[in-house]
Amino acid sequence: MRKLTIFLTITIGWIFCLAALSLAQAPILREQLVYG
């Protein structure tokens, strides 16, 4: 049970980090596409 909790915590943390990174990079990527 404890391993499952740790696994879920790490997984949610990874998803949160990836979402934050993609949100942070979205405007930069959009500018590169527009101004290329």
**Derived structural class:** mainly alpha
Biggest sheet character = none
Tell me the series of helices and strands, N- to C-terminal. H
Number of strands: 0
Helix content: over 70%
Assess the beta-strand content as a share of residues: under 5%
Count of alpha/pi helices: 1
Rg to the nearest angstrom?
Answer: 16 Å
Mass-distribution shape: rod-shaped
Report the end-to-end length measured between terminal Cα atoms.
Answer: 50 Å
**What value does the average pLDDT take?**
89
Number of domains: 1
Low-confidence stretches: none
What descriptors fit this protein?
single chain, 36 residues, rod-shaped
What's the layout of helices and strands?
Elements: H1 2-35
Architecture overview:
With 36 residues, the chain is mainly alpha-helical. The protein has one domain. It is built from 1 helix and no strands.
Q: What's the short version?
A:
The protein is mostly helical and 36 residues long.
